[in-house]
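I am still learning, so can you show me any protein sequence you like together with the matching structure tokens, please?
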Amino acid sequence: MINQTILKEFTLVGFSVYQHAQTFLFVAFLCLYLVTLTGNIAIISLTWVDRCLHTPMYLFLSALSFSETCYTLTIIPKMLADLLTKNRSISVIGCGMQMYFFLGLGGAHTIILTLMGYDRFLAICNPLRYPLLMTNMLCGQLVASAWAAGFIISVTETALIFRGSFCGPNLVKHFFCHMRAVVRLSCLDSELTEFTVTVISVSGLMGTFLLIILTYVFILSTVLRIPSAEGKQKAFSTCASHLTVVFVHFGFASIVYLKPEPEASGGDDTVIAVPYTVITPFLSPLIFSLRNKDMKNAFRKVLGKTSSLNK
């Protein structure tokens, strides 16, 4: 029998390997996070206030912004706090909760992105029947289903990883409780569990991405049949922001989940996760708001009402 220390808490190594850059990283990540929060809250607020935006497309966008706000809340505040302190510990229960919510919210976010592609497919390929096929009520039901599916997958993966005890050392080589970093500390067969949860995540990631690509194949074939150049440009403009966010989101996510095993140092895992967890949420609201005329018009209306009230 080999003596094993059963862990009650983990230490998140995170960016502690970059001691000289702690202050710079804190300021940089804090600025990115504040912009992310501001952008997402602005999208949610404008969609709620402006009745012109009470359509399925903007309701999906609002739901996407809400899920993004929630899933960044699960990891970034803790990461920022750890950059300012030497005590980077987190309890095993706290780690499990963080993983559960991050995976659930991230999964819901990915499924909502897929539903937004389906919404554009209906709007462009079936414009006359679109108001009947995609109602606000159906939009709400699809978003609720996305959240349910995300958390079903999350509870499955989290339960697989936390079904046994964890053995020393207690160092999680990441800035949050990432699946692959935590599962390696399990006293059970970590390789089998890691393979299983990776297959689940990659299957979900690739499945949703292929569905989005399929919808855009149909969209493209429909747009190419539009006789006028102006009609083609208008149809493509409604998809440009979504397609940009899709490639950013799935591109960075694939790097995290499809890359080879990290080196023993574990530093690479931390750096590679930054684009997916920090940069993607930062870019998403900027892309959707800056390239959207309706959203900019709604913002101007709010500013106009605010200035008139001040007068």
About this structure: Confidence is low (pLDDT under 50) at residues 263-267. The chain has eleven helices and three strands.
